[in-house]
Design brief:
The longest helix is centred in the N-terminal third of the chain and has 20 residues, at 4-23. This protein has a single domain (27-113), classed as Pleckstrin-homology domain (PH domain)/Phosphotyrosine-binding domain (PTB) (PH-domain like). It is an alpha+beta fold. The protein contains 2 helices and 6 strands. Strand 2 (37-42) and strand 3 (45-50) form a beta hairpin. The strands form 2 sheets. Strands 1-2-3 form a 3-stranded antiparallel sheet, with no helix packed on it. A 3-stranded antiparallel sheet has the order 4-5-6.
Amino acid sequence: MPVQFVIIPVVMATFGYFLMKNLVFDLVDEVWDAGSELLIKNKGVETRIPLSHIVNVSYSVATSPQRVTLTLRQPNAFGKEITFAAPTTWVPFAKSPIIEDLIHRVDQARRLRA
């Protein structure tokens, strides 16, 4: 049996694992908007994060799934950063109005806290 039939699948599997690890495996299961806070659920653990405790909202439209990363003022059960998939839109590479609204509300909550 030629070596290529062993090496190529191993290389592809390794590449696939690292791609999934960096794009999918770190996503939390659910994020729900509860007005002045976000309800985060992952693997049976649930926590609430007030919008004023979010330092930054990073939104990437060029990945699939589109990713939103919240950087927190204080680490919680999920760490200092929480990443989740943004709601999908019909237009490729279009910004989600839901996430744009979240960014605006986080900015307002931070201003009120200061």
